[in-house]
Design a protein that fits this description.
The chain is α/β, with parallel strands linked by helices. Helices cover about 25% and strands about 25% of the residues. The strands form three sheets. The chain has a six-stranded mixed sheet, with helices on one face. Strand 3, helix 2 and strand 4 form a beta-alpha-beta unit. The longest helix is centred in the N-terminal third of the chain and has 17 residues.
């Protein structure tokens, strides 16, 4: 699978929509199977954008580039932080962020989701996580065991000063679940009401080794990189419900 991970700089909402369309068309022209945009990339924490207007632009872009699937971070009318997957002008999957990040005030901004989600694209099953979800290994494990995901994709709004944490969690989720992991983070926010330096984009294979990019956007997920996996939870997981405390 050929991934395009955006290095998006969040400006004002109108500029962001135009940039999204340009970059999405560019990714599709380059042969991307999946083009990923970060969490909340159109509005950040402080701007407002009509969710229906955003969906109309998602529909238009994906309809114009039917060979590429698009993963967008957005908000809903109900106040949920949503990942939405579009292809051929139609929404194929959605996931509402379950593990909100209390230090950033997300519990006051959004309502948490109540289920996990995966999507099947071009022979791959991709588990969807958003940013702080990476801190909860049970979510990644459920996506591997129940949805049998080949890869986990985590659009994020993660600070540059804690990029080492972002990298570490992505690598850990890759190794312990024997899957690819891809973290697509906002590069920066430069809106007058919100200035932010984001972490990097990182992709790890099922052994925990980095997948390199030649152009800072394109990553190739090759199943041959699964060779050498020592422990696959699909084969050896033991479901223990009982915990004894002495």
């Amino acid at each position: 699978m050929r991934l395009h991970l955006s290095r998006f700089v969040c400006l004002d909402a109108e500029s962001n929509l135009e940039r999204m369309e340009r970059e999405g068309a560019w990714a599709a022209a380059g042969g991307a199977d999946l083009c990923v945009f970060p969490e909340s990339f159109l509005h950040g924490y402080r701007q407002r954008l009509d969710p229906e207007r955003a969906r109309a632009r998602f529909r238009s872009l994906s309809g114009d580039c039917p060979g590429t699937a698009f993963l967008f971070g957005t908000l809903t009318e109900e106040g949920r932080n949503r990942l939405t997957v579009w292809q051929g002008g139609e929404e194929k999957a959605r996931y509402d962020k379950v593990h909100l990040f209390r230090p950033a005030g997300e519990f006051e901004l959004w309502q948490p989701g109540d289920r996990y989600a995966a999507v099947r694209l071009k022979g791959w099953t991709l588990g969807l996580l958003t940013c702080n979800d990476l801190r909860f290994p049970e979510q990644a494990r459920a996506l591997r065991l129940q949805a049998r995901c080949d890869a986990l994709v985590a659009p994020s709004w993660w600070p540059w000063r804690r990029d080492h944490v972002f990298r570490t969690l992505l690598r850990a989720r890759a190794i312990e679940n024997a899957v690819f992991t891809a973290g697509c983070c906002i590069a920066a926010a430069e809106h007058r009401e919100e200035v932010f330096a984001g972490a990097g984009n990182h992709v790890f294979d099922p052994l925990g080794d980095p997948v390199r990019t030649e152009d800072d956007h394109t990553y190739i997920l090759d199943r041959k990189r699964r060779e050498g996996v020592l422990v696959d939870p699909l084969e050896t997981f033991v479901d223990i419900q009982r915990v004894e405390t002495f």
